[in-house]
Amino acid sequence: MFELYEPLLVGARQVWSVFSSRWWLFTLVLGVFLSGWSVWQGQISPAQVQAEPQDLAPLTIVEPDDQIVVDVSGAVVQPGMYQLDKGARIGQAITRAGGYRLGVDDRSVAQEINLAKKLQDEDKIYIPFESDAIITVAKAQLDGAASSSVSLNSATQAELETLAGIGEVRAKDIIAGRPYSQLSDLVEQKILSNTVFEQLQDQISL
User: Fold this and answer.
1) CA 84 vs CA 59, 91, 115, 175: distances in Å
2) Which one, 36, 82, 103, 134, has the greatest CB density within 10 A?
3) Residue 56 carries which DSSP code?
């Protein structure tokens, strides 16, 4: 019975002999095939497919309707612009600015600033210093002195005659000597004597 299968065995040995001698060639062909297959698969991989560009909606910046921006300056710890809730009060804005700093005019704040007043967008809040009151008083005194003095360049004859030592003649001489660039011109032009000028220099102005 072995004789029946002997031709098949001989054929198988011959095929194996040929195949084993060409094994490296088969391996090479298989490797090239697998490499080509991988590259082809990679080229059409869904992960690498670029999507078509889509039109983007325009960017719109929307400012919240429930917010306002106010400017806080003066005698506060951190002057600047602050964003607050709509309907915020002046007192809240001062708190956001760090509160009052040294030198604040407490009396003016208490008398003139309503901390409960509601703020509007773009409002400005100024907290006064004590030095502001001093400057205001000094300016008022200067303005008052200037307004009560008699102008050499613009006063009428009647106004000039209200000055002590100035009669009709001297008043007309003062008007005739205009314009004056300095008060001492009255002495240099010999309109007034030094004695009269010293008495009047606090009551006259240019």
Assistant:
1) 25, 12, 15, 62
2) 82
3) P
- Least Cα distance to 180 among 145, 155, 144 occurs for 155
- Using CB atoms within 10 Å of the CB of residue 53, give its burial: 0 to 12 exposed, 13 to 18 middle, 19+ buried: exposed
Ramachandran category for residue 165: left, alpha or beta (phi over 0 → left; psi -120 to 50 → alpha): left
Q: List Cβ<8 Å contacts ≥24 apart for 34-43.
A: none
Is the preceding omega at residue 58 within 30 degrees of 0, hence cis? no
Which pTM does this prediction carry?
Answer: 0.39
Compute the distance between CA of residue 5 and CA of residue 110 in angstroms, rounded to an integer.
Answer: 123
Q: Helix 2-21 to helix 23-43 angle, to the nearest 10 degrees?
A: 60
- pLDDT tens per residue, the chain (206 residues)? 545 555 555 555 665 565 555 555 566 666 666 666 665 555 544 544 455 555 655 655 455 778 999 999 989 999 999 999 999 999 999 999 999 999 888 888 888 888 999 999 988 998 888 887 655 555 554 555 555 678 888 888 888 888 877 888 888 888 888 888 888 888 888 888 888 888 888 788 87
What's the rounded Cα separation, in Å, for the pair 65 and 185? Answer: 66
- Amino acid sitting at position 205: S
Give the 3-state secondary structure of residue 114: coil
